[in-house]
Amino acid sequence: MFSSDSLPLLGGDSPALQSVLRSAALVAATDATALITGESGTGKELVTEAIHAESPRSSKPLVKVNCAALTESLLESELFGHVKGAFTGAYANRQGRFEAAGGGYIFLDEIGDLPLSTQVKLLRVLEDKVVERVGDNKSIKVDVRIITATNRNLQELVRQGSFRQDLFYRINVVPIHLPPLRERPEDIPLLAEHFFQRIKLKTGKPLAGISSQAMDALTRYSWPGNIRELKSVFEYAFVACAQGTIDTQHLLPHILEGAKPLEERAADAPVDDEQHKNELIEALRQTNGNQSEAARILGVSRVTVWNRMKKYNVQVNNVVEI
User: Fold this and answer.
1) Nearest alpha-carbon partner for 255 in 279, 225, 298
2) Residue 10 and residue 19: Cα distance in Å, rounded?
3) How many other C-beta atoms can be found within 10 angstroms of the C-beta atom of residue 297?
4) Closest by alpha carbon to 108, among 45, 177, 161?
5) Which residues of the chain form beta strands (DSSP E)?
6) Residue 246 contacts residue 205 (beta carbons within 8 Å)
7) Tens digits of residue pLDDT in 104-129
8) pTM over 0.85
9) Are the C-beta atoms of residues 211 and 247 closer than 8 Å to each other?
10) 288-297, long-range: CB < 8 A, 24+ apart
């Protein structure tokens, strides 16, 4: 199994991240096709890079393609290549990304944006291990591992008819879901420290660390931009902080304003604080301190459970020992 050290930019030892690491290790050790899902900024490309690095194909290429960044005609040429004269501007034969990735990996990001016509051709690559260059009918054998990723709901796209069901089953052999950062706040301090040290090394700025007040604000923010947003916050903080310790005044204003998201405030609105506290203690007791399971019992998010534990000063060890 991968250690969290294999994916430092994902950071932490939360159960959610450990599940990702287990699945990634499974993919790296086999030739199974993986589908990585998650919101934008959660680190789908980072997981792909780690799988490639830990696999027997690590010495071979890892070729990345963003399926949403190209038009349908350009995408097919990029993926499968083309022959001279296939279209205006095709002045020579050109190798596609699948051929370029020979022996290694190809990462198809934003797979949910792949046109239906291209989906058919991708399905053939998966099933027959061959590609045909645009403008040619000659089959070219390819030996390549495929990892796909999306922030869209592919099963919903299948129901809508915009994504082929047979292709979904072929790419979803090993599903890996990256949870948003707001669902694993316990990982934020480790990630924050990682970005602090990384940017400090890059800039050479002799800052001492992160204040407890700043860290508290970071852990209570909802992070709609996920890990990518957290990195940007620290890049700004290093500009704003001239010396000493990064404090709340060095964070972007919206971090402090949203340090406790509105939905969480509503969820924590104390109709009866004592009742909320008792329900929380009982749920944690039933689950032996498992916050995710406690959240399921209470019908709230995991972040809400974490916020209530902090608000009512409920410690897992004390609850389990009761």
Assistant:
1) 225
2) 12
3) 16
4) 45
5) 34-38, 62-66, 105-109, 130-132, 139-141, 145-150, 174-178, 209-210, 245-246
6) no
7) 999 999 999 999 999 999 999 999 99
8) no
9) yes
10) 288/320, 289/316, 289/317, 289/319, 289/320, 290/15, 291/316, 292/15, 292/16
pLDDT score at 1: 57
- Show the tokens assigned to 254: 């919206």
CB 252 within 8 A of CB 287: no
DSSP state of 94: B
Kindly state the DSSP code that residue 85 receives in the 8-state scheme.
T
Q: Are strands 145-150 and 105-109 parallel, antiparallel or unpaired?
A: parallel
Handedness of CA 285, 290, 291, 293 (dihedral sign): negative
Residue 19 parent element (H or E): helix 15-29
Residue 102, CA distances (Å) to 82, 142, 167, 223 in order = 17, 6, 21, 38
Nearest-CA neighbor of 190 among 219, 213, 217?
Answer: 219
Sequential DSSP letters for 130-184: EEE-BT---EEE---EEEEEESS-HHHHHHHTSS-HHHHHHH-SEEEEE--GGG-
What would the mean pLDDT of 52-76 be, rounded to a whole number?
91
Residue 154 confidence (pLDDT) above 70: yes
